[in-house]
Amino acid sequence: MLRLRPYPKENEALTEYLMRLAYMNSHFKLSNFLKSIKMDKPKAGRFGLWHTTQLTNLTKVLSIELGRDVTDVLQLHQRYSQTSWLYEKGRTFAELVVDFPRICTGCLAEEHVMDWRWGIATVARCPKHKLPLIDTCPQCHKPISWDANLFEFCPSCKQPWKLKASAQHFADIELSALEWKLWPEVDGTLLANSTLLADVTFATYVAARPFDMLIQAFSRVPYSANHSELILTGIQLLTSPEHRVLWDERCNSHLQDFTETIHPPMQFKHWVKGTYDESDFLNLTSFNERTEYVQKARVKYASELYDEIPRYHVDIFSLAKAVNLDIGDVTIIFESQTFPMVNTSFVGNQKMKFTKIFNMHYITGLISEFVKTPPYKDGYLTITAQTQSVIQHLCNFGDVVNAVLTKKIKGYFSSTSDLSQVIVPTEPFKIWLANMLKSSCHRPITVVDASKAIDCSNDEIILLVREKKLKWAKHKRKGEFINGSSFKTYLESHNSQTQT
Ligand SMILES: [Zn+2]
Ligand SMILES: [Zn+2]
Predict the structure, then answer these.
(1) How far is the CA of 342 from the centre of ligand 1 (A)?
(2) For residue 60, is it within any domain?
(3) Residues 178-204: pLDDT tens digits?
(4) Is residue 202 assigned to a domain?
(5) Which alpha helices (H) appear in 153-193, and where do they start and end?
(6) How far is CA 1 from CA 42, 57, 169, in A?
(7) Whose atoms come closest to the Cα of 160: which ligand?
(8) How many A from CA of 161 to the centre of ligand 1?
(9) Which residues lie near ion ligand 2 (Cβ < 5 Å)?
(10) If exposure means fewest CB atoms within 10 Å of the residue's CB, which of 32, 247, 384, 410 is most exposed?
């Protein structure tokens, strides 16, 4: 049995209580303490998350160590499941309880108790001392570990807590109205609604990746040094026009080669749903990119073709917007691997089309080679997605763009951010189209494509089959595919008729 067996405090959750229990009984590392009280598989990390088996086992060993019924201790954990706003699917941070310890040095100097609310990813400061919560030692810069020494000093360098002047000056700054809304009552009641939480988590993420065009959600918040500063910077993004101007300028200088439609400030305006009163500019002017907020798969399995700078990563929706094409046409280009994917491990999985990532920097470089004015005035056609001759040859506009980018035909674009029209030399283009039609006719053709090509309805195609002018394709479901060579024959006779 443990020598000292305190009851939980009102503001403790399970891990915070265990930390105090360890401290009072002269144990320090939380994992060692759990081992010493003979937990089956002593938990060693992810202390924000306790599984049912871990809880069951803990109940057993704790009731022995405390010599009493420990329902009250386990209820500390239920606080999380009863506080509904802590988890919401679809939010930038789905789970708000973090796995790393965060502390108010002011509170710890007064009483050796950790408040459960310090572990919430949207809480930046202790309302009593107005100090930012720390997760990293201000002196040795090591992450603070789950070690009960933290009640007195840094478990790594053993120096007493001493905040930097930049953090200390917050003691004179009142919490903003928004920060107050994000600080829950001890029972979990929160003023902030789900829109506000969605906006704050999103803004916090943007503060971590200020120049990234891609936004990726996290189920658990990754550790990165000084999480509180990140939250405050996010809040500043929401509430300070001055800060947004600074950010906009920095984005323009970093991302000058790209169309503004995919610049982070544009996306920010689009995604933020609430409206926010202006509040003080907190003078957090650094725009440091935090690597912890780039999901490993994006850089780990990246193609070695080019340097991976996560800033330039885009998903297929942003890519389409950035080059002014529709998703279908972009898909044709990426499926032929002209627009390579960043994450090569995803190749081949069509279902995951929408999770694929592209490098805008590489793609812009690829297109720029074709951004020119044609050398002669005459003998060119301007092709767009509406050009009839393309559809009549069973092609998509994406095929034309792809043929230009892969140099199968000559072609010219007006800018790297606009592939919606391409100028091609007339004669070689006609030959290319004819060849495309020819090769398409080696395969069965869908009724939809066939009707588009000859500009008629699906029923008229069926009628043509009945009249034996077209044939159904073999080995395909009847009524859906036309035999390619019958279609070619039909086109040839149809064209010669219309020409005479
Ligand atoms: Zn405090
Ligand atoms: Zn330290």
Answers:
(1) 44
(2) yes
(3) 999 999 999 999 999 999 999 999 999
(4) yes
(5) 165-168, 177-182
(6) 18, 16, 45
(7) 2
(8) 13
(9) 137, 139-140, 154, 156-157
(10) 384
